Amino acid sequence: MVVGLQPVREAIRVHGAALRGLALDARDSPRVDALERFARDHGVTRVERWPQGELDRLSSGVSHQGAATWAPELQLTALDELLADPNLIALALDKIQDPQNFGAVVRSAVGVAEAAVIWGEHAAAPLSTAMVRASAGAVEHARLCRVASLVTALSQAVAAGVRVVGLDARAPSALSELDLRVPTVLVIGAEHTGLGGAVRRSCSELARLVPTRKIDSLNASVAAGVALYEVAIQRMKSAT
Questions:
Q1: Edge-to-edge, what's the strand order for the sheet holding 47-50?
Q2: Is 198 helix (H, G, I), strand (E, B) or coil?
Q3: Residue 158: is it exposed, middle or buried by C-beta count within 10 angstroms (0-12/13-18/19+)?
Q4: Alpha helix segments (H runs only) across the chain
Q5: Residues 96 and 42 in one domain
Q6: Residue 159 domain-assigned?
Q7: How far apart are CA 139 and CA 134, in angstroms?
Q8: What DSSP assignment string belongs to 24-49?
């Protein structure tokens, strides 16, 4: 289930006629009307107008903005496939359990560096309607990798020669001091607890984003955006 004007628009853009239907608010709305035209232009044939109360019930409390659709299941990428990418940039999420944070991280991953996102299946928010809504549709374009154990996945990455960098505000080295032009996984912990001990030990190194004395951590999606920007800048410079 995908709800919200922008998430639904991206689902239409990616899946088109493969969508199993589109439910739109029956009330007059130029934005909803424009979305209906966009959907029909992309081959969506089953478009229905629903009362607002029905959309409210359908979305289970997630803000729908008058639009909802049934999309195909999100496709996941195998870890081995990611680790074989010579240009790998990925975020690994350690216990990011808030769907808003999870979705916002995915949005940063796609928007800043087209980075993959790796997370443990038992220690993160699920791929829910709320998470998809928070990504503002970016999840439709993301490379998603769900693993049984994040610790094991990071250990595999290190063994494969990937630079696995855990973000830690107290690390002695700054992220900007590292060579991030090689295959890289950036590991982000929960906002209040940081990286777990086992996850921390699975990283090849730790690095801080910026020197600070006033706060110990940033919101996960902010940290992801800042870290990925550093990776993107380094790689852009090396390409010129």
A1: 2-3, 67-69, 22-25, 47-50
A2: helix
A3: middle
A4: 5-15, 30-41, 52-59, 79-83, 99-108, 129-134, 150-159, 197-202, 220-239
A5: no
A6: yes
A7: 9
A8: EESS--HHHHHHHHHHHHTT---EEE
Q: Which of 28, 51, 69 delimits the end of a domain?
A: 69
Cα(119)–Cα(117) distance, rounded to whole angstroms?
Answer: 7
Q: What's this model's pTM, rounded to 2 decimal places?
A: 0.91
pLDDT in tens, 153-191: 999 999 999 999 999 988 999 999 999 999 999 999 987
User: Residue 25: what residue type?
Assistant: D
Within a domain: residue 74?
no
38-64 burial, b at 16+ Cβ within 10 Å, e below that, comes to ebeebebeebeebeeeebeebbeebeb
